[in-house]
Structure formats: structure tokens, C-alpha cells
Amino acid sequence: QVQLVESGGGLVQDGGSLRLSCAASGFPFADYSMGWFRQGGKKERELVASINVSGTSTYYAQAVEGRFAISRDNARSRVYLNMDNLEPEDTGVYFCNKAGAKFEDDWGQGTQVAVSS
Length: 117
What we know:
This protein has 117 residues and is mainly beta. It has strands at 3-7, 10-13, 18-25, 34-39, 46-51, 58-60, 68-73, 78-83, 92-98, 111-116. It starts with a strand and ends with a strand.
């Protein structure tokens, strides 16, 4: 059974930093590109960053380019998201999953990020 446990969220001020962690199990982690998604307010869940299986190639949504950094540890089946220069628009619930995950797939509970202005 796929399990995804996100942690590291919290309340920070505009310009602050957070590091999110995700522990994955129940599937061959090293065989999948992984991503971080966020859902804020009335917006649909969107992919903000992804990383390929070897960690050598990354993708970032334009809104977070230059501020967020995704990384992974295949030996520990973990994926991370370093977030710097946070903005109020980054507020939302952050989820990790396979990069191609769909709404109907298994998801974790996510971790809440709140950025105050």
C-alpha cells in the first residue's frame, strides 16, 4: 500500500524559509520521478516541483523558480523541498507524490504552510 507522509510545514513570515520532508513507502521509490504539489485556497492541486529518479534533473513551476529546491534520498525513500523567500501566495497544503500522480491516486495528508505578510 502506498504511503506518503509529509512533514515540516508551519507558519512563517513573508521572506522566511521552510524545509519540507516526505517519507514514501509501498512502491519502488527509486524507480519513480517524484514531485511536490500544493493546494491553496480554492485553487486546484498543482505541481510546483519535480525531480527525476537519479536526482539529476528538476522542474519548477514559474511561481517558485529560484526560491524552491527539490532533492531526494533514494536510500531512505525520501524527497525534500527547501523553500526560501516565501511569499503569502505560497500558502497552502503541500503534498508529495509520484510526479505523474492524478487526483484519484493515493495521497498523504499533506503539510500545511502558512506565510504571513
